[in-house]
Every structure is written in structure tokens, then in C-alpha cells.
Amino acid sequence: MDDCLFCTIVAGGIPADVVRDDGTTLAFRDVNPQAPTHVLVITKAHHRDVGALAAADPDALTALHRTAAAVAADEGVADSGWRLVFNTGPAAGQSVPHVHGHVLAGRNLGWPPG
Ligand code: AMP
To answer: Which of 10, 22, 36, 41 has an alpha carbon within 20 to 30 A of 63's alpha carbon?
Structure first.
């Protein structure tokens, strides 16, 4: 989609600090990190949110989760703990309508989230 921020990143139109790229998914550091590790994992194909992705392409949803786990391993937090968050819709604070999981780690994340 022409007016989608994350599609523009996939197309190389905006630079990103990419940490993983497997062809189906892309992982890059969040510009406004909320934890020492804060990486966004997206599908390169445009889907509005995680529900739309699950309905349209379950294999890509699995790939997104696999990439998130690989990022956690790369960051050295696989054993200490990490969180994968999908803000979905306005009440959850989703600001970019292109599916993305937040990989958060590196501090005590607490529960429940705010
Ligand atoms: P959400 O609010 O769940 O939709 O998350 C969107 C995230 O994208 C926020 O945490 C932003 O900090 C992040 N973000 C916005 N623009 C960029 C960018 N150009 N590169 C990396 N992360 C971004």
C-alpha cells in the first residue's frame, strides 16, 4: 500500500535498523523503544492487523512468530524472558495499520500491562 508506513520501510523508502529479514518477515528496532530490547516484527505483505493476517495467511503468521523467537535468541533474552505484543485496533493503541508484533525484553515487564 502506497500510504502505509511499514510498506514504505519494506520497499526501502524509509531507513530502518533491520535485525532480521527472511523474505516473508522483517524485524527492525522500534524508533521509540519501551524496553532495552524493542523490535518490531512485520510481514512484508500488507495485512491490517494480526486477525486479518491469521485469516489470510496462517503460514505467514507462523513465520512472524518464528522470527520473533529468533530475535529473542539473537538479543540474548530467550531464557530470561520476552514478550510479544500485538496492539490491535484503536482502543489498544495500534497506530500503524500494518500487522506488527512488538518484541519487548531486557527489563522486568510486569503484569498486567498498563
Ligand atoms: P503500535 O502503536 O502498536 O501501532 O506500534 C507502532 C510502533 O511503530 C510504535 O512503537 C512506534 O514507535 C513505531 N514506529 C513508528 N515509526 C517507526 C519507524 N519509522 N521505524 C521504526 N519504528 C517506528
So the answer is: 36
pTM above 0.90, yes or no: yes
Residue whose grid cell is 510486569: 110
Query: Three-class SS of residue 10?
Result: helix
Is 87's C-beta closer than 6 angstroms to any atom of ligand 1? yes
- pLDDT at residue 56 above 90? yes
The neighbour count for residue 13, using CB atoms within 10 Å, is 10
C-alpha cell at 76: 540474548
DSSP H/E element including 63: helix 58-75
93 DSSP 8-state letter: T
Q: Which domains does the chain have, with CATH numbers?
A: 5-105 (3.30.428.10)
- Tell me which of 6, 37, 95 to substitute to probe ligand 1's pocket, judged by most ligand atoms within 8 Å of the beta carbon: 95
